[in-house]
Amino acid sequence: MRDFLRLIGVWALTGGMCAAQVGPPACGAGGGVRPGRPTDASIRATAASAAGDPTFLLAAEPMPNFGVARFRLQDYAECIGENGCYWADLDAQWVRAEAALEHVLAGRKEGEKLAVVLDIDETSLTNYCEMRREDYGFIVQMYNVWMASPESAMVIPGALRLFNKARAAGVDVFFITGRADELRQATERNLAAAGYKGWRGLALRTGPQKTMPTIDYKSEERQKIVAQGYRIVMSVGDQWSDLKGTATAEVSVKLPNPFYYLP
């Protein structure tokens, strides 16, 4: 399996497996690239020009400028400039995951109970429009209102493709999310509105789980799936904490997420 996954990676990077031509979803008012905003190239040109001027006394700057980093992130998310396209990179990883799932299913044994585990935020659903509206910050109250709203039923196409392939092959799909259980009704509604139909389980943090480290919480929930007699063939998430720990999948797929980090 390791050799197969390595082969998929090389194949994808060399163009053997092409991601769909994808871009950012359509969002409402707020956010977006402001007219007249400096480009990454112009910022680098300004710095290079100043560095070559002997009348400038330059400061040591070991940390990157946060504003400039945010411009680069915005370019990557909007698929403009020279920094690539987040959505294309995301879809390319889903293409690799689909191929890996097909390989695993080719060797399944009769009567086996197989499971795929999916994270939700930035894995199955995207919060991009809210992140964009907050200028890629994180305002808890605004974010929670967004996740509870019908607006947040924004599907990540690659996730839905893999979900449907798994279901068509008789594989049960479980969602394990770090969201609090108070968002269960909204989460169920938005998953269904995004096209996810027929999942086997949906785990949200409840009780003591709300203060548990993410790795421990998700390990605990995966162990519950294994205890039901399932073989977890694949787990997909945008954070390392979605994937590491115990009761891990045979194939763990790490998606790109340049927006935030959850330990």
Automatic annotation (TrEMBL):
<dbReference type="InterPro" id="IPR036412">
    <property type="entry name" value="HAD-like_sf"/>
</dbReference>
<dbReference type="InterPro" id="IPR005519">
    <property type="entry name" value="Acid_phosphat_B-like"/>
</dbReference>
<keyword id="KW-0732">Signal</keyword>
<dbReference type="InterPro" id="IPR023214">
    <property type="entry name" value="HAD_sf"/>
</dbReference>
<protein>
    <submittedName>
        <fullName>Putative acid phosphatase of HAD superfamily subfamily IIIB</fullName>
    </submittedName>
</protein>
<dbReference type="Pfam" id="PF03767">
    <property type="entry name" value="Acid_phosphat_B"/>
</dbReference>
